[in-house]
Amino acid sequence: MVQKAYRAQIFHLLDDPYLAGDAYQYFKDGLLIVEDGHVKTVGPYRKLAGTLRPNTKIQHYKNHLIMPGFIDTHIHFPQVDIIGSYGRQLMDWLQDYTFPAEAAFKDPKVCANTARFFVKELLRNGTTSALVFGTVHEASADAMFMEAQKKNMRLIAGKVLMDRGAPKNLLDGKDMGRAATTRLIKKWHGKDRLGYAITPRFAPTSTSEQLAMAGTLKAQNPSVHVHTHMCENKNEIKTVSELFPDASDYLDVYEKHGLVGDKTVLAHGVHLSASMCKRISASGAGMSLCPTSNMFIGSGLFKLAQLRRHKVRHALGTDIGGGTSFSLLTTMSAAYSVCQLRDLSLSSMDAFYMATLGGAKLLGMDKYVGNFEPGKEADFIALDLKATPLVARRLKGITRIKALMFAIMILGDDRMISETFVMGKSVYKK
Ligand code: GUN
Ligand code: ZN
């Protein structure tokens, strides 16, 4: 048995602070003990140091804070090369930038190269788990799973399903989507730490037949996820009402095709009605909130108060490449700004919950990751509290943990991540 020990300031969340109050632990001088890639225990250094095995060396991270790895609940790996493409709303942005970029993934080499870069970039930003969109090409999902498997990451991904509303070379031909999805589920779902998500892009790019096929696949494979977009942008919603005139609203399209359940993650939900919130909540599905994307694409400001009122599960996503940063710290900061503009102050504890344990819950992985409960897989990061001169100066005088975490989420970004660990193994070091 291999035992490792990490000494630093240590922070993690035990529950949802919005519902459970001060559900966090913070050890100013803490020790995290890891055995065979799993958390053995976490607590004050002076209490735990004496319990270590005689040969265990302590790695001391001075001026660092160790916390669980970030969880990105909505991201597109094929869109790394179109981040920051100028000046379009969603439907034009897809046609002008996204679809041409995704067409390049018919080449398996492009899939492999981009997946390699993408996984590196996740880890460089302290993100240890994610729910990932591929392209319509089967090889894109294969490449994503292969790269995540190399790093032993807990990650869910899927091949996109599209059979209309995009250039012909990006559409599943008859029966292609079903056959490829079936092969990918068999090959990857439940393998190591990987999981599959059936991934219809969104209602405008699938016919009713394809959505029904996706619903049937979900019924045949109850443990897989469903991952799609919904109610992101006003023009998108109008398109859906034109394409599905019999549906009572956008959610109804997915409901009618058997795609809404407790393993469904719907990205965005900027424009939800009370009825949709009630039905999402009752189904156990959840929303991935993507504030940098919503502001960049001009989609709007999500309504956290409404989601809370209806007990709709939610967490954070970067939505690269509509989103503008891989960093969950930057995403938390953007979420705070969105909430401010809606007259709600998002606390640091709420934000860090959404980026860690809340994300794990949304993706159904909280049994394994999200905090340092004994027995969980040891995915964690070390944040450099002196990452930049300004960060060092600003954080130096802070004594209260909530204020410290707040300043970290507002000022922090990838520069603050000094090391990333997956199952106790260092996979990125600044
Ligand atoms: N809706 C459908 N596809 C996409 C996409 O690729 N990005 C975003 N932000 N929204 C979408
Ligand atoms: Zn998206």
CATH H-tier superfamily of the largest domain: Metal-dependent hydrolases
Indicate the proportion of strand residues.
15-25%
Terminal residue distance = 28 Å
The helix fraction, in percent, is: 25-40%
Give the overall average pLDDT.
98
Q: What name does the CATH topology of the largest domain carry?
A: TIM Barrel
Low-confidence stretches: none
The number of domains is 2
Principal-axes shape call: globular
Largest sheet: 9 strands, parallel
Ligand set: guanine, zinc ion
Number of strands: 16
What's the CATH architecture name of the largest domain?
A: Alpha-Beta Barrel
**Alpha-beta content class:** alpha/beta
CATH class (first level) name of the largest domain: Alpha Beta
Q: How many helical elements?
A: 17
Oligomer: single chain
Radius of gyration from the alpha-carbon trace, in angstroms: 21 Å
